[in-house]
């Protein structure tokens, strides 16, 4: 029963996100809005319900299976990737560097602001 309740919570948040995206024509995927809704709900509640924790742990156990379709896509479109390898490589390199720089900047700001507290 906890798995059904936890999965229902996750699916309800995703559905609410999809409804908001379609209603307001937002350029953000519905599941992302659903995750924000879930986050807000968890922050308001102050803790994670045990049914949601159990469901999340069960899904995380099989997370690696979600990478199979991406791997198949890489194999299927290998020729297209080979044709544009330089652009893809530069995009990956620059986006990774930008992500690291922004993360370091945010961490530095947080450390300066909250460094004395533990």
Automatic annotation (TrEMBL):
Entry membrane topology: Multi-pass membrane protein
Signal peptide: none
The keyword Disulfide bond is assigned to this record: no
Transmembrane keyword on record: yes
Chain segments annotated as transmembrane: 26-46, 58-79, 85-107
Matches recorded under InterPro entries: LrgA/CidA
Protein name according to UniProt: Holin-like protein
GO cellular component: plasma membrane
Keyword vocabulary terms for this entry: Cell membrane, Hydrolase, Membrane, Transmembrane, Transmembrane helix
Domain of life: Bacteria
Compartments, as annotated in UniProt: Cell membrane
GO molecular function: hydrolase activity
PANTHER family documented for this protein: HOLIN-LIKE PROTEIN CIDA, HOLIN-LIKE PROTEIN CIDA-RELATED
Pfam families (UniProt xref): LrgA
């Amino acid at each position: 029963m906890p798995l059904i309740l936890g999965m229902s919570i996750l699916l309800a948040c995703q559905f609410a996100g999809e409804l908001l995206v379609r209603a307001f024509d937002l350029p953000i995927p519905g599941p992302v809005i659903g995750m924000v809704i879930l986050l807000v709900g968890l922050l308001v509640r102050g803790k994670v319900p045990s049914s949601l924790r159990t469901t999340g742990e069960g899904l995380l156990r099989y997370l690696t299976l979600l990478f199979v379709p991406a791997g198949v896509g890489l194999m299927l479109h290998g020729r297209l990737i080979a044709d544009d390898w330089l652009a893809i490589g530069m995009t990956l390199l620059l986006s990774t560097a930008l992500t690291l720089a922004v993360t370091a900047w945010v961490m530095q700001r947080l450390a300066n602001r909250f460094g004395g507290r533990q």
